[in-house]
């Protein structure tokens, strides 16, 4: 049996959280090293592990991977969450790019000044309810009896959409009130056994970013 994947990032969501979600959904155990000091970060750089000087960093299958999209694509393909052919992969890429855009808007907000932060969160919820959620409601409506976004099998697109939905609901609990198919999708995907386990307290799932997380990121990266 090979060693567990090892993740290097801060003790928080950021760009690593979708990687945690994908591994958890695949039923893969992983280890984490949380960056708390500038020295940890500089050691990764000195050891030549940060190709572009950035985290997330994942060690897996004898490789050192950086860049979030590359890591997610590799994991999706490795764990059979990336569709059955090129056409399905293209749709999965399209949907995950959309949800990633939305989630990055949320992830960047805590680093803004308080007034700008509130405005950013308001923009996120408005965009979710007027652009992203209507788009996914339409996709689900066109699928008939299929219960997933692409084909009839769980994929990276489903996992990341659920992650995005839950993030928006943390900002607006009624965000899905006008989207019945998304509500059903949320319930369905949340009950996939591996995902249900990840959503329980005590899992590797990280809470929303707080002041300590923001200060740690700024200190380590010297921003």
Automatic annotation (TrEMBL):
<keyword id="KW-0808">Transferase</keyword>
<protein>
    <recommendedName>
        <fullName>Glutathione S-transferase</fullName>
        <ecNumber>2.5.1.18</ecNumber>
    </recommendedName>
</protein>
<feature type="domain" description="GST C-terminal">
    <location>
        <begin position="85"/>
        <end position="211"/>
    </location>
</feature>
<dbReference type="InterPro" id="IPR036249">
    <property type="entry name" value="Thioredoxin-like_sf"/>
</dbReference>
<dbReference type="InterPro" id="IPR036282">
    <property type="entry name" value="Glutathione-S-Trfase_C_sf"/>
</dbReference>
<feature type="domain" description="GST N-terminal">
    <location>
        <begin position="3"/>
        <end position="83"/>
    </location>
</feature>
<dbReference type="Pfam" id="PF00043">
    <property type="entry name" value="GST_C"/>
</dbReference>
<dbReference type="InterPro" id="IPR010987">
    <property type="entry name" value="Glutathione-S-Trfase_C-like"/>
</dbReference>
<dbReference type="GO" id="GO:0006805">
    <property type="term" value="P:xenobiotic metabolic process"/>
</dbReference>
<dbReference type="Pfam" id="PF02798">
    <property type="entry name" value="GST_N"/>
</dbReference>
<comment type="similarity">
    <text>Belongs to the GST superfamily. Alpha family.</text>
</comment>
<dbReference type="InterPro" id="IPR050213">
    <property type="entry name" value="GST_superfamily"/>
</dbReference>
<dbReference type="GO" id="GO:0006749">
    <property type="term" value="P:glutathione metabolic process"/>
</dbReference>
<dbReference type="InterPro" id="IPR004046">
    <property type="entry name" value="GST_C"/>
</dbReference>
<dbReference type="InterPro" id="IPR004045">
    <property type="entry name" value="Glutathione_S-Trfase_N"/>
</dbReference>
<dbReference type="InterPro" id="IPR003080">
    <property type="entry name" value="GST_alpha"/>
</dbReference>
<dbReference type="GO" id="GO:0004364">
    <property type="term" value="F:glutathione transferase activity"/>
</dbReference>
<dbReference type="InterPro" id="IPR040079">
    <property type="entry name" value="Glutathione_S-Trfase"/>
</dbReference>
């Amino acid at each position: 049996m090979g060693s567990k994947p090892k993740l290097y990032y801060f003790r928080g969501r950021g760009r690593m959280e979708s990687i945690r979600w994908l591994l958890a959904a695949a039923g893969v155990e992983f280890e984490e090293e949380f960056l708390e000091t500038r020295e940890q970060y500089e050691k990764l750089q000195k050891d030549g592990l940060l190709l572009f000087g950035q985290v997330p960093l994942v060690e897996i299958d004898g490789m050192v991977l950086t860049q979030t999209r590359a890591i997610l694509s590799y994991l999706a393909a490795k764990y059979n969450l990336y569709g059955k052919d090129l056409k399905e992969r293209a749709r999965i890429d399209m949907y995950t790019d959309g949800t990633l855009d939305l989630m990055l808007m949320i992830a960047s907000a805590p680093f803004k000044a308080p007034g700008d932060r509130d405005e950013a969160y308001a923009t996120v919820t408005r965009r979710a309810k007027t652009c992203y959620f209507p788009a996914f409601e339409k996709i689900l409506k066109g699928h008939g009896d299929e219960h997933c976004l692409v084909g009839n099998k769980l994929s990276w697109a489903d996992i990341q959409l659920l992650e995005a939905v839950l993030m928006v609901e943390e900002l607006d609990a009624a965000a899905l009130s006008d989207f019945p198919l998304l509500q059903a999708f949320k319930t369905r995907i949340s009950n996939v056994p591996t995902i249900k386990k990840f959503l329980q307290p005590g899992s590797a799932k990280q809470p929303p970013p707080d002041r300590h997380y923001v200060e740690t990121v700024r200190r380590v990266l010297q921003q």
